[in-house]
């Protein structure tokens, strides 16, 4: 039985005259770990940003766990989603950003507890305990009282992961989580994401240029080109035997570069 | 004699010492006008900044025109306007209040700009992270944007505090007994302008140095990061 948690149905996204997503159909199953690869400007970030409600859509329907994300039903008709609807839907998703986007004026602990306390209504005590657990999980036990600028990039990104997880999302979105890091710090962040990928119920969408890592952790790899999925399959299929010429060119360029 | 205090003209030093308490009375008025004007400028400026940032043009446009108009006209005109025109519409305020209001109004056009720049300097990623965590727009403003903007705007606001202080003598034209006005009255009555005016200059310098020092202290005390509104 299929259990679709994310569904893009003929989704179009335009920025002015530029069409970034071109009638995209894209499904993700619950618990699936999907990696999105593709050339710059192909719409990879846009897919994640639409899911995180940072970007609206121009046409089509996006559904999360069976409910439209950017629309809601009113009097039997689908109308554009209100902020209240978006707020309700948003709790299902968490995002990790390329530039970390931690709050610089808050301690690591408050970065992680602010959402659970103020948005989810968790008690401060529970939120703190959960933050300690999460920090332990990402290898940053005892760093809760530091401020982001006192941490390395790799540590900041691991706090970013803990902060997103603290909201207990069903779906985690990673937009090039290691692209802003010095090469020697990439491994520690990938290890955390890799460990997370072991969690059966968590759905993960990852945009990355780390092909070897994508191969290890993903159930499926999607190659985006010009706002569409040009080719997709298991990592073995896509990396060892790509069918499309564009995929082959791209992989060749990335693996050699 | 002024404020019931006699002056002693037997020597320059005795004169200076005898009029110091008189000038200090004026200085208190100057300080009061400065802080009241500054407070009005801070509040009104934030309101202007918010209106100018409004998504609706019918709100942002008039706010923009009004602040531009305030910026492009001299303080004295605004002061006369408030002092002579408002009473015609039944709004009679004491000269001191009118003066402080005029100062605040004039400087609100500048502080609005400081707020705008401080708020726009917050990285887009901060808004996106707040949205991803499902913060309301109000919470994003009060807990993410403001705490990061406030330390950035303190130096600029401090400069305006000093500027306001130096503009207070303008209020003498509507009879406010601030320090310069007091010194001038002393001069008129004793035919000695040099000593009271020099003393006003010296007192102004002390006030300005103290204010600037205070702002610098505040700027260094509030850490750029790690600042919480709580
Ligand atoms: N707010 C915006 N306004 C206008 N154009 C935008 C905006 N956001 C993205 N774009 C454009 O949309 C296209 C797709 O952007 P997107 O960020 O999804 O690409 P990407 O596949 O993530 O690329 P990269 O690998 O460089 O991150 C790009 O051409 C980009 O310039
Ligand atoms: Mg991108």
Automatic annotation (TrEMBL), chain A:
<dbReference type="InterPro" id="IPR003439">
    <property type="entry name" value="ABC_transporter-like_ATP-bd"/>
</dbReference>
<keyword id="KW-0547">Nucleotide-binding</keyword>
<keyword id="KW-1003">Cell membrane</keyword>
<dbReference type="InterPro" id="IPR017871">
    <property type="entry name" value="ABC_transporter-like_CS"/>
</dbReference>
<dbReference type="InterPro" id="IPR014343">
    <property type="entry name" value="Ectoine_EhuA"/>
</dbReference>
<keyword id="KW-0029">Amino-acid transport</keyword>
<dbReference type="GO" id="GO:0005524">
    <property type="term" value="F:ATP binding"/>
</dbReference>
<dbReference type="Pfam" id="PF00005">
    <property type="entry name" value="ABC_tran"/>
</dbReference>
<keyword id="KW-0472">Membrane</keyword>
<dbReference type="InterPro" id="IPR030679">
    <property type="entry name" value="ABC_ATPase_HisP-typ"/>
</dbReference>
<keyword id="KW-0067">ATP-binding</keyword>
<dbReference type="InterPro" id="IPR003593">
    <property type="entry name" value="AAA+_ATPase"/>
</dbReference>
<comment type="similarity">
    <text>Belongs to the ABC transporter superfamily.</text>
</comment>
<protein>
    <submittedName>
        <fullName>Ectoine/hydroxyectoine ABC transporter ATP-binding protein EhuA</fullName>
    </submittedName>
</protein>
<keyword id="KW-0813">Transport</keyword>
<feature type="domain" description="ABC transporter">
    <location>
        <begin position="6"/>
        <end position="251"/>
    </location>
</feature>
<dbReference type="InterPro" id="IPR027417">
    <property type="entry name" value="P-loop_NTPase"/>
</dbReference>
<dbReference type="InterPro" id="IPR050086">
    <property type="entry name" value="MetN_ABC_transporter-like"/>
</dbReference>
UniProtKB/TrEMBL annotation, chain B:
<dbReference type="InterPro" id="IPR000515">
    <property type="entry name" value="MetI-like"/>
</dbReference>
<keyword id="KW-0029">Amino-acid transport</keyword>
<feature type="domain" description="ABC transmembrane type-1">
    <location>
        <begin position="27"/>
        <end position="212"/>
    </location>
</feature>
<feature type="transmembrane region" description="Helical">
    <location>
        <begin position="193"/>
        <end position="218"/>
    </location>
</feature>
<dbReference type="InterPro" id="IPR035906">
    <property type="entry name" value="MetI-like_sf"/>
</dbReference>
<dbReference type="InterPro" id="IPR014341">
    <property type="entry name" value="Ectoine_EhuD"/>
</dbReference>
<keyword id="KW-0472">Membrane</keyword>
<keyword id="KW-1003">Cell membrane</keyword>
<keyword id="KW-0813">Transport</keyword>
<dbReference type="Pfam" id="PF00528">
    <property type="entry name" value="BPD_transp_1"/>
</dbReference>
<feature type="transmembrane region" description="Helical">
    <location>
        <begin position="22"/>
        <end position="51"/>
    </location>
</feature>
<keyword id="KW-1133">Transmembrane helix</keyword>
<dbReference type="InterPro" id="IPR010065">
    <property type="entry name" value="AA_ABC_transptr_permease_3TM"/>
</dbReference>
<protein>
    <submittedName>
        <fullName>Ectoine/hydroxyectoine ABC transporter permease subunit EhuD</fullName>
    </submittedName>
</protein>
<dbReference type="InterPro" id="IPR043429">
    <property type="entry name" value="ArtM/GltK/GlnP/TcyL/YhdX-like"/>
</dbReference>
<keyword id="KW-0812">Transmembrane</keyword>
<comment type="similarity">
    <text>Belongs to the binding-protein-dependent transport system permease family. HisMQ subfamily.</text>
</comment>
């Amino acid at each position: 039985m299929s259990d679709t948690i994310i569904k893009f149905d003929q989704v179009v996204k335009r920025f002015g005259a530029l069409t970034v997503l071109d009638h995209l159909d894209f499904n993700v199953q619950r618990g699936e770990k999907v990696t999105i690869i593709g050339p710059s400007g192909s719409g990879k970030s846009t897919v994640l940003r639409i899911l995180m409600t940072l970007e609206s859509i121009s046409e089509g329907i996006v559904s999360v766990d069976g409910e439209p994300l950017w629309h809601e039903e009113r009097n039997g008709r689908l109308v554009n989603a209100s902020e209240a609807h978006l707020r309700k839907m948003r709790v299902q998703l968490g995002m990790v950003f390329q530039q970390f986007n931690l709050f610089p004026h808050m301690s690591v602990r408050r970065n992680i507890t602010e959402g659970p306390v103020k948005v989810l209504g968790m008690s401060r005590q529970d939120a703190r305990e959960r933050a300690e657990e999460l920090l332990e999980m990402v290898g940053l036990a005892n760093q809760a009282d530091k401020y982001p600028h006192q941490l390395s990039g790799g540590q900041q990104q691991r706090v970013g992961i803990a902060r997103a997880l603290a909201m207990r999302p069903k779906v985690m979105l990673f937009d090039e989580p290691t692209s802003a890091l010095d090469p020697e710090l990439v491994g520690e962040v990938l290890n955390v994401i890799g460990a997370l990928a072991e969690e059966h119920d968590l759905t993960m969408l990852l945009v990355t240029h780390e092909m070897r890592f994508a191969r290890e952790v993903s159930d499926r790899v999607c190659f985006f080109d010009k706002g569409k999925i040009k080719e997709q399959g298991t990592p073995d299929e896509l990396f060892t035997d790509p069918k499309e010429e564009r995929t082959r060119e791209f992989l060749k360029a990335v693996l050699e570069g | 004699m002024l404020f019931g205090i006699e002056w002693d003209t037997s020597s320059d030093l005795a004169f200076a010492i005898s009029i110091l308490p008189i000038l200090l009375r004026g200085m208190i008025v100057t300080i009061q006008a400065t802080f009241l004007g500054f407070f009005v400028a801070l509040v009104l400026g934030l309101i202007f900044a918010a209106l100018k940032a409004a998504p609706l043009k019918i709100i942002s446009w008039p706010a923009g025109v009004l602040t531009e108009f305030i910026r492009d006209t001299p303080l004295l005109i605004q002061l006369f306007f408030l002092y002579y025109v408002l009473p015609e519409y039944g709004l009679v305020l004491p000269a001191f209040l009118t003066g402080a209001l005029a100062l605040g109004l004039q400087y609100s056009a500048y502080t609005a700009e400081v707020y705008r720049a401080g708020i726009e300097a917050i990285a887009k990623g901060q808004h996106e992270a707040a949205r991803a965590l499902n913060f309301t727009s109000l919470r994003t403003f009060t807990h993410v944007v403001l705490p990061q903007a406030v330390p950035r705007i303190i130096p600029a606001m401090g400069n305006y505090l000093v500027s306001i202080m130096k503009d207070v003598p303008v209020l003498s034209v509507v009879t406010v007994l601030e320090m310069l006005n007091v010194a001038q009255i002393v001069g008129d009555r004793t035919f000695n302008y040099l000593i009271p005016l020099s003393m006003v200059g010296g007192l102004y310098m002390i006030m300005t140095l103290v204010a600037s020092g205070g702002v610098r202290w505040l700027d260094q005390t509030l850490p750029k990061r790690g600042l919480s509104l709580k």
